[in-house]
Structure formats: C-alpha cells, structure tokens
Amino acid sequence: QTFDLEPNYNVTLLNLWDKHTLLCCSRWQGLLLLDLNTGKCRRPPFDCGKEIMNVLIDSQKRIWVAPYNGGLNCLTHDGKLLATYTTHNSSLSNNVILSLAEREGEIWIGTDGGGINSFDQKTNTFHHYPTTYGEKVTSITDFSENELLLSCFNKGVFTFNKRTAQMQPFP
Fold first, then answer.
1. Tens of pLDDT along 49-86?
2. What is the distance between the alpha carbons of residues 12 and 51, in angstroms, rounded to a whole number?
3. DSSP secondary structure letters along 11-53
4. DSSP label at residue 130
5. What is the pTM of this model?
C-alpha cells in the first residue's frame, strides 16, 4: 500500500477506526486514516504531531494517543480532546509511553523506564506498579484473567500478575 498523503509512510501500528477504515500509526510520520475500500488516505480529525509512539482505540471508541514525551491524550472519534495526562498533572510514571492495551475497561500503559501503569477509566486515576520501575515495556497484551504478557526492551517476554504486581520470565 502506498500512502498518497505521506510518501514513504512506515506503519508501526494499526487500529480499526470503523468497518471500512484503519487508523495507521507511524513512529515518525504521525497518524493517517486508510479507507479499506478505496485505498485513499486522510488525516484524522485531530493532530497530535508527527512523533507518535502508540495509539489505541478503546472499547468505548475513544482514541488514546501517546506522542513522544507527551504523556497520553484521550480524544473522541470526532477529534475532541477529552484529557491529556502527563507526569505533571497525574501520577503517570513517565511521559514516554511505548505500549498501550485495554483489559476490562482499564488502560494498561508501558513506559520507557517507568514500568507499568494502569488507568481506571471509572475513577479517572492512574496506578503505578513500583515493582516494574526501570523497565522499558515495549508491548503489552492480555494473557489470562490475572496476567498480562509484556515485552521488555532487551530483556524478553514476561508475565505480569495484576494482583501481585510481579513479573516472571515467560514461559
């Protein structure tokens, strides 16, 4: 696929925007919407800059965007900024967010050296897991009822127990 709005666009993440559109993320070239029927691209109805580390569309169709060293932005589908969370206005452990995942309405956040945070959308609060501080969590995914799978930069894959906050090498 060539991206008519952005030559040499390197896709690093994909999210389903709607039935016919992908939200494409490029680490250095920002976000684009790709129409799956026509192959045409357009910009999303918001601008979070060109340096995007991660993006997630949650179960409530909100868009979570992690611009480099900019914390975390939460937006509506039509581009309205709902919130911006940084280390200055929240208990987020690091402004460089490498990975995002959702599990049962909670947003799980992997940072560049700040370890793991979770965001409870019902209470609008962050929780940091100090046992993970120092970890560069590059990827997070659901694994079981009580565990997540993590990828940590230059260390490999780990299970993370959400109840005990302990990491164990996988398998």
1. 899 999 999 999 999 999 999 999 999 999 999 999 99
2. 12
3. --EEEEEETTEEEEEETTTEEEEEETTT--EE--SS---S-EE
4. G
5. 0.90
